[in-house]
Amino acid sequence: MPVISTFFGIIVRMFFDDHEPPHFHVEYQGQFSTFDFSGKLLAGELRSARARRLVREWARLHEQELVANWKKVKALKPLQQIAPLE
Question: Could you say which of 6, 16, 53, 84 has the lowest number of CB atoms within 10 Å?
Fold first, then answer.
């Protein structure tokens, strides 16, 4: 599962040929969760409110890049790295 970005200990991944709706996976301190491209938590648990806020902010800043990568995962093509939150 390719890592597309990392920031502040948060690892963001996308799975190839993953199920709808479009989403990305986050790992933070051993916790796993799934977010949509607007930054809404879809599944899993991310107990840190700060980490959830950072993921939401990152997703909103990079929504178009996430959409482009989603199209690539559906086509089984290599993904582009997305800049971390600074």
Answer: 53
